[in-house]
């Protein structure tokens, strides 16, 4: 019994660590425009809130799967978040106060984590085999690694700003995969298998091109 508990815990920690890579990118992208003194606060609070909501969603995972078009809507919304993070529109809004920006970053972290976490929630729920204490312990163990990874990615984004397109591309790719896994569209994807396979790449290209065009347009307007 104890061995099964440990094996399940290790499986959950492994899933959370894989998930942590996506989390680190989202957190770093959401925090990159904050003042330096607010970044650690946003990373810690955003991660904590995301973990709490993830535990809650794992509890109701079975019911979530019954909601029609959930993956599709979540994928579309995640595309919006990816575009918003790439373009950094908050950079150009001078009337946003710093404390509003902090909570906006935290909200982005939590919402993106929830949208990206459906598949992972199901995987964790399956590994836990009904033991929600395992879910909580696994997530708590993974918190320091997620926070450390976020800080490392944030340092890279600060040093190499063009990496923001890599992060945005990863979010867009995840969004495309979510949309391609929508059960309500199975008949469409079975009739057009190429669409299902190419959708993640199409969404990635769409967001990256859209982000670059937006940035170019803004630079042209600013130069005028």
Describe the protein in words:
This protein is an all-alpha fold. It contains 10 helices and no strands. The radius of gyration is 18 Å and the shape is globular. 36% of the residues are buried. Mean pLDDT is 78; it is low at 90-99.
Topology:
Blueprint: H1 2-31, H2 36-59, H3 61-64, H4 70-87, H5 98-116, H6 118-128, H7 132-159, H8 164-180, H9 186-191, H10 193-223
Helix pairs in contact: 1-2, 1-5, 1-6, 1-7, 1-8, 2-5, 2-6, 2-7, 4-5, 4-8, 4-10, 8-10
Summary keywords:
single chain; 224 residues; mainly alpha; 84% helix
What class, by secondary structure content?
mainly alpha
Number of strands: 0
Helix content: over 70%
- Gross morphology is globular
**Element-by-element helix/strand order:** HHHHHHHHHH
What is the CA–CA distance across the termini?
70 Å
List the uncertain runs: 90-99
Short description:
With 224 residues, the chain is mostly helical.
């Amino acid at each position: 019994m104890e061995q099964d508990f440990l094996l399940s815990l290790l499986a959950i920690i492994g899933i959370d660590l894989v998930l942590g890579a996506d989390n680190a990118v989202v957190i770093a992208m959401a925090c990159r425009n904050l003042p330096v003194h607010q970044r650690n606060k946003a990373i810690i609070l955003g991660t904590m809130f995301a973990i709490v909501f993830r535990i809650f969603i794992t509890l109701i995972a079975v019911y979530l799967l019954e909601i029609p078009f959930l993956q599709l809507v979540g994928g579309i919304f995640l595309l919006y978040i990816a575009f918003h993070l790439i373009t950094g529109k908050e950079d150009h809004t001078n009337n946003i106060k710093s404390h509003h920006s902090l909570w906006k970053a935290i909200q982005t972290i939590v919402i993106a984590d929830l949208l990206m976490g459906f598949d992972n929630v199901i995987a964790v729920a399956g590994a836990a085999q009904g033991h929600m204490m395992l879910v909580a312990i696994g997530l708590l163990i993974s918190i320091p690694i997620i926070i450390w990874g976020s800080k490392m990615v944030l340092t890279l984004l600060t040093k190499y700003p063009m990496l923001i397109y890599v992060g945005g591309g990863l979010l867009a790719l995840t969004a495309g995969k979510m949309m391609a896994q929508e059960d309500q569209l199975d008949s469409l994807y079975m009739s057009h298998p190429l669409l299902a396979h190419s959708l993640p790449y199409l969404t990635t290209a769409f967001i990256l091109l859209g982000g670059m065009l937006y940035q170019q347009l803004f630079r042209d307007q600013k130069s005028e």
